[in-house]
TrEMBL record:
This is Methylenetetrahydrofolate reductase. Keywords: FAD, Flavoprotein, Oxidoreductase. InterPro entries: FAD-linked_oxidoreductase-like, Mehydrof_redctse-like. GO terms for biological process: methionine biosynthetic process; tetrahydrofolate interconversion. One of its GO terms (cellular component) is cytosol. Signal peptide: none annotated. The keyword Iron does not apply. Pathway: Amino-acid biosynthesis; L-methionine biosynthesis via de novo pathway; One-carbon metabolism; tetrahydrofolate interconversion. Belongs to the methylenetetrahydrofolate reductase family. Pfam families: MTHFR. Its cofactor is FAD. The keyword Glycoprotein does not apply. It comes from the Bacteria.
Amino acid sequence: MRVGNLYKNQSDPSVSFEFFPPRDDKAESSFYGVVDALSALNPAYMSMTFGAGGSTSEGSFQAVKRMMIEKNLPMVAYIAGYGLGPHEITEVLDRYKALGVETIFVIRGDKPRTDGFTPHPESFAHASDLIRFISDRYDFDLGCAGYPEGHVQAESLEKDVEYLRLKQDNGAQYVVAQYFYDNDSFYRYVDLCRKSGITIPIIPGIMPIYTVKLTRMLCKLCGSTLPTGLREKLDSLTNDKSEAVADLGVNFAFDQCRDLVLKGVDGLHFYTMDRSGSVLKIVQRLKDDGLFK
Ligand SMILES: Cc1cc2nc3c(=O)[nH]c(=O)nc-3n(C[C@H](O)[C@H](O)[C@H](O)COP(=O)(O)OP(=O)(O)OC[C@H]3O[C@@H](n4cnc5c(N)ncnc54)[C@H](O)[C@@H]3O)c2cc1C
């Protein structure tokens, strides 16, 4: 699966689903049920995250392998460079290449929360450096991350976009955007990127609201704003396990996706959090409305 070509050649927008590798045997037994359920929606590809500092390197590889070989699914593998030396990076990439993976999503990653992690002295400071390192050595299609509201450590949104341009110039062929709950922030971001000479596809990331607690925690971590109206609705839902929370998440994401598709995005990338219920409902409703094939 070459994602660079996907967006060039498609006549209609596509969906993709992101997973993280199952943490243990118990998680693994439900994980493949989720994958099977979502593969019925015919996504353009599925993707597998990579834990900072190489923490999930083996688990990510095994999951990608099983999904490609046993389930014949179009896969994208991720690599997060934080703390890894050039040799550790090429070891990971050589295995993916031998497996037949054709697209790598390249991110810097963050300092692992585990104690005692010592970064390799030659590790890559920025995703753009890692993208250059990979594009000089491999024939993978490469993706990179963008941040419609600015990365949490960015000096400014403008500077962040300048660095996104560097990722494109160093070989990235598409961007997946951090999730957002206000589509206007995405449209403004795309405008700013285009004015800055970024021409590659920018695919919106969609994070349905799964639970209120998770949503609040992730928004803080990722720097995504909860618009006032949505925050008030969430505040009014006292039982986080209730159907009402999941329904609100599905309805909100459906409206968000509908607007994005009608405005002409090339695709929708869902952060599934290894769950299938909400994404199945959202994508099925988009299909029923004729917005997706
Ligand atoms: C779609 C998506 C998928 C993700 N998947 C994973 C995953 O699988 N595993 C994981 O660990 N994390 C993942 N992340 C999180 C990501 O690793 C973090 O957001 C991380 O903090 C930044 O990664 P980056 O690739 O955007 O870094 P960079 O592009 O390196 O940017 C990081 C910061 O440095 C600044 N910067 C960039 N280049 C320069 C430069 N040349 N000079 C000075 N400053 C610069 C930027 O403005 C930004 O503030 C994902 C994020 C997204 C949006």
